[in-house]
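Need a sequence for this fold. Nothing fancy.
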């Protein structure tokens, strides 16, 4: 603000502060940037390791989800994710209880399906991506806590379009 007088600086700063507050309030009061419903309440789950999300324009099925863990809680999450949305999707984050986070590792596919970008693991429309086998993507787990007495683990998956998907996965010793 070189060359402005104190009389001009104060109203200018106040105007900028008001504009910023209006913009922030508008963003906070509107739905999320995605027009799709948060999938934290799944349409159907037929037990641990499987969930079908069919909310708004989202049609995704996750099957065979298993956390392979050693005694220290280290291991990996294997699963198959079927994307029937009609648009590409990205898995951006995996969370486990007590603040645990999965480490996403991209797969090697000629078509890019399962590859890792800054948005997450790519899930092309009309495809099934298998996590944890062959050249597919992987989710590495470190020091996981929260395994239930029924040998299940609550997991949250954050997708770019589908939103937050919460479900129980089976736990196997590795």
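Here you go.
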């Amino acid at each position: 603000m070189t060359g402005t007088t104190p009389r001009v600086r104060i109203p200018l700063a106040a105007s900028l502060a008001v504009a910023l507050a209006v913009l922030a309030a508008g963003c906070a009061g509107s739905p999320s940037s995605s027009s799709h419903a948060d999938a934290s309440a799944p349409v159907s789950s037929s037990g641990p390791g499987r969930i079908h999300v069919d909310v708004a324009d989202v049609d995704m099925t996750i099957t065979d989800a298993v956390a392979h863990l050693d005694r220290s809680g280290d291991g990996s999450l294997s699963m198959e994710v079927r994307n029937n949305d009609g648009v590409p999707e990205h898995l951006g984050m995996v969370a486990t209880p007590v603040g645990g986070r999965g480490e996403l590792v991209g797969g090697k596919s000629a078509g890019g399906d399962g590859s890792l970008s800054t948005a997450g693991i790519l899930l092309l429309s009309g495809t099934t991506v298998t996590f944890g086998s062959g050249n597919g993507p992987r989710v590495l787990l470190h020091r996981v806590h929260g395994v239930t007495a029924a040998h299940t683990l609550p997991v949250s998956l954050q997708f770019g379009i589908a939103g937050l998907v919460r479900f129980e996965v089976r736990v196997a010793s590795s």
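For context: The first strand starts at residue 51 and ends at 55.
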